[in-house]
Design goal:
129 residues, seven-stranded mixed β-sheet
Length: 129
């Protein structure tokens, strides 16, 4: 099996930046075989997709509210995915999750929190002055 562990969250002032990490571990979770999605869930709201890579064609998707501010990247040697978040706003406050979907699988759009094989436990991001 494998697991995903998020890190890098915390309390930050509006306009500042944070970089979340999603470290994959375990013999069955080499990220070269998976596409990663980032999701968030604010209190009282449903989990929403923030950014993701399609497991079918490798294209990236971002929700409109984070376009131009959030960027995904990967360090293959470290088996870690990143979400760089800049110009943070109070409405970005949520628990952030990373999830992994096996390449070549899944028919739902990658921003939908379905058909993911592994999920991290989540990490809190709070944007407040």
């Amino acid at each position: 099996q494998g697991q995903l562990v998020e890190s890098g969250g915390g309390l930050v002032q509006p306009g500042k930046s944070l970089k979340l990490s999603c470290a994959a571990s375990g013999p069955s979770l080499g990220l070269q075989n998976y596409a990663i999605g980032w999701f968030r869930q604010a209190p009282g709201k449903e989990r929403e997709g923030v950014a993701c890579v399609s497991s079918l064609d490798g294209s990236s998707s971002y929700i409109d509210s984070v376009k131009g501010r959030f960027t995904m990247s990967r360090d293959s040697a470290a088996n870690t995915e990143y979400l760089q978040m800049t110009s943070l706003k109070p409405e970005d406050t949520a628990v952030y999750y990373c999830a992994a979907r096996l390449l070549g699988w899944g028919v739902s759009p990658c921003l939908q929190p379905r058909e993911y094989d592994f999920w991290g436990r989540g990490i809190q991001v709070t944007v407040s002055s």
